[in-house]
Design a protein that fits this description.
This protein is mainly alpha-helical and about 90 residues long. It has helices spanning about 10-25, 35-50, 55-75, 80-85. It is globular and about 35 Å long. It starts with 11 loop residues before the first helix and ends with a helix.
Length: about 90
């Protein structure tokens, strides 16, 4: 079952950086705490800056894939990424 899920290549500490930036950075907070997928993508790529060079490009591509996949899942067009939002 795990092989069927999309991969998320960012690390736990990078997920923490995404959450911290969302909470503490006024540039990412939307009205009523809403987050656009463009801002989500920027949060992920911002956290990815701490990656080593050999993993940076792969994680950058993965950030794009995850952001697009989540957008499609929110719009009901991609069931693979709906696992992340259920």
């Amino acid at each position: 079952q795990q092989r069927e899920l999309p991969r998320l290549l960012i690390t736990d500490s990078q997920i923490n950086n995404v959450a911290r930036a969302y909470i503490h950075d006024d540039n990412f907070a939307g009205e009523n705490g809403e987050l656009s997928m463009w801002k989500f993508y920027n949060l992920i790529t911002g956290a990815n800056k701490s990656s080593y060079l050999d993993t940076f490009l792969g994680r950058s591509v993965n950030a794009t894939e995850v952001s697009v996949g989540l957008t499609e899942a929110l719009n009901g067009r991609d069931m693979a990424y709906s696992w992340f939002i259920e």
